Amino acid sequence: MSKKNTIKIINLIFSLIFLIVHSSFASTDNSDFVVTTITQNVYSIVSPSKGLPTPKNKGWNSNIHFVVTKKGVLLFDTGSSESIGLKIKKAIKSITDQPVRWIINSHSHADHWLGNAAFTNTAFEIITSSKALATMKEHGQPSLDFYFKVTKGTIGSTQLVYPTVILMQGIKRNFGGIDVEIILSNDGHSPGDILIWLPKQKIIIGGDVLSSDWMPMITGHGNIPNLIKTLNTVAKLNPTIVLTGHGKATNVESVTRDAGLLSSIWKKVKSDYEKGGKSNETLKDIRTKLNPKYKTLYKDFELEIERYVNLMYELQH
């Protein structure tokens, strides 16, 4: 096995470990998919679980968002199995008779796209970025096998259905009369993350690039400086509503909060690393400096801050 492939596998495992670390949040039985109205034609289905897929939550641990247009539904992410996708489809029917015509997969992590198969009979396009698609094709089957194992088969049978349409930075599309602008995070959270901006509604939908209740989701195969840049770009748009991959809807204050947190930690780690410092010393300094400001702003600050510092040290190499 080449060194490059080994690193990719390690990064995939890291992302799964990230879920395991957060498994304490994944205790709710997700039998009901409740639709929350965001605006007149924008809706969310928010998962009460965040973390490891389990037999109890049947693999559902991420949010779904959709926009009802004059010519069909634009769906942002499809969940982590075909059975979850079918529940999403049923929930959407409680709002509109319009079928799902377009799907955007925000990124390659399994909980955001394995439900694609549930929509193949209606969707015209399944859309993502080139980097996200390449990662899906490389890790799709191992990810599906992992989800099946940890949920003890409760996700059911799932066919891997890959996106067929590639979007690039700055592309503007009109879906059934709704203007949408594409923003790429330049691998901020993972390779090829996609966010969509609805300029008329002033809503940003960002998958795991954006956060509300929990610390920003940094991973070993993401790019933290680019994540910070993307958050600053989003903040300049001044969205009224921010829809995330996990957790409740929020606003631009969460985006600026996350950019400030990441910038402070990254700057400190980079400086200490260049001076030959040690991660435990940096962690102590960061806790002293940042705890008063950020500890109460996140549900998982104490749990995550050590992982942040250690991972950022690793990314300096």
Q: What is the gist of this entry?
A:
It is built from 7 helices and 12 strands. It has 317 residues and is of the alpha/beta class.
Broad shape: globular
Number of helices: 7
The CATH class label is: Alpha Beta
- The percent of residues in helical segments reads 25-40%
What do we call the CATH topology? Metallo-beta-lactamase, Chain A
Structural class: alpha/beta
Q: What are the secondary-structure elements, in order, as H or E?
A: HEEEEHEEHEEEEEHEHHH
Protein name: MBL fold metallo-hydrolase
InterPro entries: Metallo-B-lactamas (IPR001279), NDM-1-like (IPR050855), RibonucZ/Hydroxyglut_hydro (IPR036866)
Keywords: Signal
Structure description:
The structure is a single chain. This protein has 317 residues and is α/β, with parallel strands linked by helices. It has a single domain, classed as Metallo-beta-lactamase, Chain A (4-Layer Sandwich). The protein is built from seven helices and twelve strands. Strands 1-2-3-4-5-6-7 form a seven-stranded mixed beta sheet. A five-stranded mixed beta sheet has the order 8-9-10-11-12, covered by helices on one side. Strand 4 (72-76), helix 2 (82-93) and strand 5 (100-104) form a beta-alpha-beta unit. The protein is globular, with a radius of gyration of 19 Å. The model is unreliable at 1-10 and 16-30 (pLDDT under 50).
